[in-house]
Fold these 3 entries.
Entry 1:
Amino acid sequence: MPPVIWPIIIPIGIIPIVYLFRRTQVGAFIATFTALEIGWLIVQLEPDFVVDILGHALTLNSFSQTVLALIAFFAAIFFLISALSPSFIEEKAKRVQLRQQKRHRKAHGGIQGQEGRTLYPVGLALLSLFIVLSLTHHLGITALLMQVAAILIVFVIQGGRLVSIRAALQFLSLMSLATPMLLLAAWQFDTYQYQTRPPFLPDTYQQTALLVGLGFALWLAIVPFHSSLTATAADSYPATSAFVLLTVPAIALMVFMPLLENKSAIFEYSPFFENLLIAAFFTAFMGGMLAGIQRGFSQLMGYAALYDLGCLLLIIALKHQEGVTMLLVNLSSRAIALSLLATGMAALRASHARDGFVELTGMAWKMPFATLGLFFGGATLVGLPFTAGLMTRWEILAELASWDVRLTILLGLAGLAVFIGYLRGIRHLLDDQNGDSTVQIQEPLGLLVLIIGLIIINLLVSVFPNNLLELIASIYQP
């Protein structure tokens, strides 16, 4: 049996147990250890030919292996955040009653103890599906598997909530629009492969590149298709929204990068990279500017992640000399930032139904480490000094300056707008005029320890970036 089969079948076998205990911390801890085990098994794999099914060779490349390991390890962190998050009961009467009866609040993640319960089993199913998706390099099969993943992610986004289905509906609609485009592009790729009368017309290649570009624009949530991710960040629980904000773009890039390499002749016949540069810059600029005017930390995380996504795509569009390595480093810093933001917001929402700036006024004095987590998470997405995002952000600005200094200035202003958005939120947190003293608020101990650990990792990566590069190089070997 090929070794890659074990990371696929292990989570499938654990899912029934996790599902039975999904409402308790036991299910979350089982899912956490399973995700860590999957990540470790993926790291130990040798990228190579796996198996031949119906004449189609399944192979695992080094880039996919690195992305899958990153997703698995940080999925374990997101499971842990949800497990350590105490539930919030919105009505004050219920809170007073719980205090009088000396009952303890249940400690599985989410508002009123409901959100996050589907993250554990569905998250494990997605990890298994992502590994299967990485093995096939046929765009048509990949598009169908991604559609299945999008349907499963809907359950993660909804998370048992009955209040609104807006985020889940927008995500599923936009992801589903990409499927027919990519299926048509896959058919054209197959036609080119078996065509016996070259050369081909340039306009045919341009049509294929356009279909691929539109399909991946929907998958990656490039502006103006960004609502699939920003609505998820606004309406979903912090751990689940961070899971989606990390995994969906990472998996899309895992499919996109080998396609650019294997079908490079087709993309060179069209202004694909020029259009990608415009789309990536516009995504980063709009994400940054919109982040500066948000009024809640959930919405702010969505637009800050959109800004970071635009910077990720700029690495590809600019054809950086170390593009793939810089892409993996940026994905790593993005994962650290989203983990910090999710942990900080989960701690704050342990006592508040929402995470709007006004609702959280004065909370910095009661939850200082949650505030620090939000600050470092936002600063990492911006790429400030002493954060993990510094390395790639300044590389992008330097590379962009060689194209047009004006674009560099505008991108810098977009990053500044993201940081201003977080400074606005933290200013409200530092305001000590909050008179709500109905319940004594304490920082959840588990989340506090997790925030401190993530901040230390963030600082170590920023001070010793070569260690991260060596770690990535040990897995990614082109």
Note: The two ends are 25 Å apart (CA to CA).
Entry 2:
Amino acid sequence: MNKLYIFGFILVCNTAFAQKHYGKSGVDVLRTYSQNVLGKNIGYYVEFTNEANREVDAIEWEAYFYNNFKDLKGKRKGSWSSGNFIKPLKPKALTKDLQASWVDGAEKVYIKITRVHFVDH
């Protein structure tokens, strides 16, 4: 019986993560779009918003790829940073990024922000 409870707990934890994006330090994910060609997720588009009171100059995240049955098909790291042509993300502003992924059998992508760097740090 204890094994059944442990299995149920793991299943609930995995299912809960599979259904939403995770922000960090006031930076949130607004939406994602993914592009599939011949059964392969070739890339995704993500929009971030800065709800913090400081400018952001770098964001790192993990992208989790799922099929329509909610099976995890792959995981990739992604990042965005300001530079010569890209300005830091001001408070209450949003930015967009496009990433290549090449994941077999994935239709959906969910983002978990892992690190945020502010201009004043």
Note: The CA atoms of residues 56 and 121 lie 10 Å apart.
Entry 3:
Amino acid sequence: MDHNVSVFKPYPFKIGQKIRIEGSKRGGDWEVLDVTETKVTLGCPISKREVNWDRFCYYSEDRNMQWPAD
């Protein structure tokens, strides 16, 4: 039976990328300084603060699909 399912995927960060995070305690403007399989390091262009966070997922799309998957 198909259901409307929200699909989340790890965001493919790239070093040097300029990003803006909205609607989160991590909100603000950031530059991607480093990326590993499990962590992303971001730098604030204003305060020069650097943070190292677990990679996080973003909403990607809604799909009509089987849920739960086998």
Note: Residues 10 and 42 are 16 Å apart (CA to CA).
